[in-house]
Give the backbone structure.
Amino acid sequence: MTQDDLFLTLLASPATPGLARTLISQRLTKWNMTDILDNALIVASELLANAVEAAPGAELRLHLRHVQNPRGILFRVWDPSPRAPLPRATAALTLTSIDAAPEDAWDHGGGWGLPIVQSLSTACGHTPTPPKGKWVWSHLTS
């Protein structure tokens, strides 16, 4: 970890993704990496929302690192849940499939977060941290 990294400890709450997006946006602007800002904010939102869902009320950790070669960022979120992240959606990721939510859940199709992260990331995955928890990470290139 370098002193330029963004490293935060946050409470898992519905407000967490929004707060993180604000701080990530400021850091990427400082690093002159606004070309990947939109994708980074989507990835951050998805990974943090999953962490909040996996461990509501728990302590989460966020780590954002500027990577030089290849130029980009490494974004990681830690939560205490031992459960590995698994996409709930099984259809191919298309605009039509994302919009295929049942009428009674029109604003929450659900399950598309990890496929979206996979499509926007150069690489992504998770790393267990025994005795509990895991880091879920995404690498985005500029």
Notes: Helices lie at 16-30, 37-54, 95-98, 113-120. The longest helix spans residues 37-54. The radius of gyration is 15 Å.
